[in-house]
């Protein structure tokens, strides 16, 4: 089993013992795969992560992509790593067996990507975003579009991007101005400027398929304002003829590269559509095709964003995990200081893992990184249930639950994953603040995840303003029922019954505060509390995840070593002693908030 | 009044209305200065900060110092900024009027340095560290040493450094191995390797005076182990003859430069003493002289470290303040989205400061940055009281209180200052994650402050293990008495009486938990809680600071605008609603902690 930046035994335990990944194999793959073969696949992913991704982690940071004469130049190791992922089939894991894929659950894909992201999130982000695009095309495109623009992504030949934000419309997608003008029976010509396009320009794939949010004038030439008037377009970098040969570059140009704090191997740029820079004729417009219904681009867009958000949460967990593993190794080796009770200055120095304060920092990292990983993988399993559950009701339930938990998993992992990376640096001390230590870069990398794919503030409004109101609150009821099953199991257990009771109290409080906020006659006051509410919600959910994981660990019993179990138990205890009470405190404060305390003059800041 | 990265009205209010800075002028300066002239000095500092320091903030980050053939090359703007500070007399603010200084209180120096640090902490750190060295030499050196090595620092001609840590002894100073061998009646020859020397090598001053921690063999040639055997040495980079002319480089060489996450304009290097690289004869050793008593270097070392720690806290507050001011300006200008209650997609977008979630992020920054600044300035005033209070008892009390509060101010400012900088990025959104936004750099810069001059973990042991036990707990009693005065004033007030009662409860709880930890029969168990204890302690102290500031604001009344007061009141309310309860929760958890929850097998991580 190769050493990796994700604790391998924990990953396998979560996948197989807790989430039963092997039960979600696609039809054709059932005879091909079992736990052992999937474990061998994880070995391959871990080896690839170490050999090709981790090996260029610092390189990709030091030599960020640069724009030269309209072309992007980047360090060749990134290309090599991506081509190795492609060649080993890691773009096509979830594709049906019959179509050349491996027919594996989303869960297994996410597990592999966690290994990749822990080794090099910037590089792993290219396929992660590309796959989100491809699956959106798969869900909403025509058969020809799927063949031409989704299938090549699953073989790693084509990459994808999301072109959503614009300068005047960062978090406010309803304000985007890019226009798509009909051109013939099916095509459109796009004109506009897009920002923050991750993976927006490079030469590492045969083609790049951009999914672009734009507006189409109605029959009278008017634009429908707001999110209702949005449509999603498939706009390839290279336009191909029917015979598949490239004929021309589409009318898209790179107008700038963002130099970022971290994730520097992932090119992030501004793109201009329809500036005519590549076409002698001038303002021709970028050729594109509608994906999903006209003026109702929100549905395919949400699929795209939800998958990207799930990926963001997973990556945040993986980066946190990498910091945890690295600082843990250091703490075992680095000797410094003595026990508080040691009075002799001549006694040998001890490994810093023996200092309680260092242990606390490591244990907190374990709570955050493993909690975030478990939550992300749980959400991945919901994706699998959506396609494989035996009846429509169960599939629908999985969808609702995944919709509800996506902003929670994204934000919780980003917030506490960053905190974990902060603590990793702290364990290293001065070394952790230098470029010679990967923990330094991990911290910078993870800072992105609270912003990309919608900030915490946006996700909080999404949770409180939309997700909780889905189908009259069914999603929250479903979550409550699911958590209740864990409480029943915990109730049977001598030690864990106490944790169960504690969780039940927190759940009760969360339900009460949720009702209060949703029924507040002053919705503005309620919505002002969305961010702390999201934070507390996340903590209650992760408290449940930890309890469920430990119950499973206890149940599996003989298969888990005592040390493995003791570690999970220590993390659970820590979470229930130090973390869950903070969430309860926040919820109590939310319940008491009588007035909107943010109402004071702007000049008073 | 020049715009600056510290809210100027707040700074003046804290200095003059709250802390009465003008009452701490030195003897000779009393006729020269008053509030108006000191305010004019702050104008000069703010202008200099803007013109020379802020202007090269990004430059200093992008072009970090490099080592070329044993010489350090750095961007010339840093030199220009430092020479401007020197030429305008900012190195000598606190020196006696009679000796060419301005005879100003430490408080005013710190206020000026807060302005400098907000503009460019890496550059401002050179004089900050240099002054700590000079004052240590002033306290412990001979008159000749003071003339030769402290006086030139106060005129900005010589810079200073602290050479403490070694590879095998990072946080454990008792394990340092650098040796000092007597050479003649007064001099020593030093041999050893030092790490993390900030400002350790450059050509921006006529000379650099290093304060070096080392061990001297006793009469039998043996070394005394542990901190008891440490001595502090003055080791200049250039050795001068009695006539003042440089004759030779001392036997010190730069062995490496640390490339750091932030503070990149401040060179941070490893130095080798006594390698003989600069002296043809070989292993001659670096010439140095004892500062303070032999084998009892801890006393001068503590003075040096305490001042450096106070500076670290102040700088963390200043960096937080810069992020707050920048994100505040952005929030006022940037239009994005609409009110939750606005149903029309065609309504114009609103400045993001109108969104409650953004307001919360700004208000939190205000709480943290202004709270940290107030606490740091309060500690500076204690330094002034130590030298100016009318009787010895009061001076002694000021010392005890400053000793107690130094680790608290350092750690609280570093922890919550970084959190403020995190929120500043979040207000900017995607832009905040790019190099075009200073908030990105501020966050990286402030990450250092939880590490340098002793990590949180080290400071926590210092607080619980030493400072609280000083003179049988007198320091904590004094703090309690001081806080009690605030409670009495609050009790008279209709609105603030409630805050006072809340604070009194928190103080009572803190006192109870402190007693419990100090008298715990298992000191190892108690010391394992040092870090959360320090964190909670800091929150209670800052809650007191905020209440005292608002009481003063209320008292000054007519002099403060209503908007100014409303802002302070909003911050106070926020702190008491959301922050102080977290500290109380932590203290309650500490009180309940029955066993050391960090006791589980190392293999379980």
Automatic annotation (TrEMBL), chains A, B:
Keywords of the record: FAD, Flavoprotein
Domain Acyl-CoA dehydrogenase/oxidase C-terminal: 296-460
Domain called Acetyl-CoA dehydrogenase-like C-terminal: residue spans: 482-600
Regions annotated as coiled coil: none
Pfam families (UniProt xref): Acyl-CoA_dh_1 (PF00441), Acyl-CoA_dh_C (PF12806), Acyl-CoA_dh_M (PF02770), Acyl-CoA_dh_N (PF02771)
Flavoprotein is among the record's keywords: yes
Domain Acyl-CoA oxidase/dehydrogenase middle: 162-273
Annotated Acyl-CoA dehydrogenase/oxidase N-terminal domain residues: 76-156
Reported cofactor(s): FAD
Superkingdom per UniProt: Bacteria
InterPro entries, sorted: Acyl-CoA_dh-like_C_dom (IPR025878), Acyl-CoA_Oxase/DH_mid-dom (IPR006091), Acyl-CoA_Oxase/DH_mid-dom_sf (IPR046373), AcylCo_DH-like_C (IPR036250), AcylCo_DH/oxidase_C (IPR009075), AcylCoA_DH/ox_N (IPR013786), AcylCoA_DH/ox_N_sf (IPR037069), AcylCoA_DH/oxidase_NM_dom_sf (IPR009100)
PANTHER family from the UniProt entry: ACYL-COA DEHYDROGENASE (PTHR42803), ACYL-COA DEHYDROGENASE-RELATED (PTHR42803:SF3)
The family this protein is said to belong to: Belongs to the acyl-CoA dehydrogenase family.
Record protein name field: Acyl-CoA dehydrogenase
Species of origin: Undibacterium squillarum
Gene: acaD9
């Amino acid at each position: 089993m190769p050493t990796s930046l994700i604790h391998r035994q924990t990953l396998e335990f979560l996948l197989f013992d807790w989430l039963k990944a092997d039960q979600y194999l696609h039809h054709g793959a059932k005879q091909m795969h079992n736990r052992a073969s999937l474990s061998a696949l994880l070995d391959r992913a871990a080896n690839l992560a170490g050999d090709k991704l981790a090996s260029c982690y610092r390189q990709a940071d030091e030599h960020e992509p640069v724009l030269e004469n309209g072309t992007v130049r980047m360090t060749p190791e990134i290309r090599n790593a991506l081509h190795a992922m492609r060649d080993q089939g890691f773009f096509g894991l979830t594709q049906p067996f019959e179509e050349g894929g491996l027919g594996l659950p989303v869960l297994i894909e996410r597990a592999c990507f966690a290994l990749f992201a822990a080794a090099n999130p910037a590089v792993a982000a290219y396929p992660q975003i590309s796959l989100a695009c491809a699956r959106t095309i798969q869900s909403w495109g025509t058969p020809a579009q799927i063949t031409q623009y989704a299938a090549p992504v699953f073989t790693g030949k084509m990459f994808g991007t999301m072109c959503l934000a614009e300068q005047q419309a960062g978090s406010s997608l309803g304000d985007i101005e890019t226009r798509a003008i009909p051109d013939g029976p099916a095509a459109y010509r796009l004109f506009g400027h897009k920002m923050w396009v991750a993976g927006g320009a490079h030469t590492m794939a045969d083609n790049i398929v951009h999914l672009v949010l734009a507006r189409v004038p109605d029959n009278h030439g008017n634009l429908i304002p707001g999110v209702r008037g949005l449509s999603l377009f498939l706009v390839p970098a290279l336009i191909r003829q029917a015979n598949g040969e490239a004929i021309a570059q589409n009318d898209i140009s790179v107008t700038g590269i963002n130099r970022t704090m971290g994730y520097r191997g992932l090119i992030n740029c501004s793109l201009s559509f329809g500036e005519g820079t590549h076409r002698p004729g001038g303002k021709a417009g970028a050729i594109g095709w509608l994906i999903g219904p006209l003026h109702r681009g929100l549905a395919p867009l949400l699929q795209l964003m939800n998958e990207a958000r799930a990926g963001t949460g997973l990556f945040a967990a993986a980066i946190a995990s990498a910091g945890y593993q690295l600082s843990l190794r250091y703490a075992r080796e680095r000797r410094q200081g003595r026990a508080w009770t040691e009075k002799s200055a001549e006694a040998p120095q001890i490994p810093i893992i023996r200092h309680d304060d260092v242990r606390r920092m490591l244990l907190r990292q374990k709570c955050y990184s493993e909690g975030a990983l478990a939550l992300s993988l749980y959400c991945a399993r919901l994706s699998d249930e959506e396609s494989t559950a035996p009846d429509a009701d169960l599939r629908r339930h999985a969808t609702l639950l995944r919709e509800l938990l996506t902003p929670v998993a994204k934000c919780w992992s980003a917030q506490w994953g960053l905190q974990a990376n902060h603590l990793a640096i702290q364990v290293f001390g001065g070394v952790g603040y230098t470029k010679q230590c990967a923990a330094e870069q991990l911290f910078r990398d993870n800072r992105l995840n609270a912003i990309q794919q919608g900030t915490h503030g946006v996700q909080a409004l999404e949770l409180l303003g939309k997700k909780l109101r889905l189908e009259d609150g069914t999603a929250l009821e479903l979550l409550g029922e699911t958590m209740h099953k864990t409480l029943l199991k915990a109730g049977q257990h001598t030690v864990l019954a106490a944790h169960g009771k504690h969780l039940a109290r927190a759940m009760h409080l969360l339900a009460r505060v949720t009702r209060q906020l949703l029924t507040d006659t002053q919705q503005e006051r309620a919505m002002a509390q969305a961010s702390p509410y999201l934070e507390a919600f996340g903590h209650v959910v992760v408290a449940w995840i930890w309890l469920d994981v430990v119950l499973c660990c206890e149940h599996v019993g003989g298969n888990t070593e005592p040390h493995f179990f003791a570690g999970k138990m220590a993390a659970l205890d820590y979470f229930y002693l130090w973390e869950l009470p903070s969430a309860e405190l926040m919820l109590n404060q939310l319940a008491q908030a009588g007035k909107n305390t943010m109402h004071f003059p702007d000049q008073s800041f």
